[in-house]
Amino acid sequence: MPKVARISTPIPVSSTSEHENSDSAQFVTVALFSGIGLLISLVAVIFGIQGVWL
Can you spell out the DSSP letters for 10-28? Predict the structure, then answer.
């Protein structure tokens, strides 16, 4: 009976998921920063705040 050696190479799944998580975290950070800036600008325009803009 022949003996077969099974050699499996591990697939680095964690590096791919960490990269995707990093990308989504950066996107969320940029989206929140932009959203807050737009909200502040909108409130300033609605209330007619003068002297804030350079």
Answer: PP-HHHHHHHHHHHHHHHH
pLDDT per residue rounded down to tens, the chain (54 residues): 567 766 666 665 555 555 666 788 899 999 999 999 999 989 888 888 776 555
54/47 Cα distance (integer angstroms): 17
CA-to-CA dists, residue 54 to 7, 10, 17, 51, angstroms: 67, 57, 43, 7
Instruction: Specify whether the CB–CB gap between 28 and 20 falls below 8 A.
Output: no
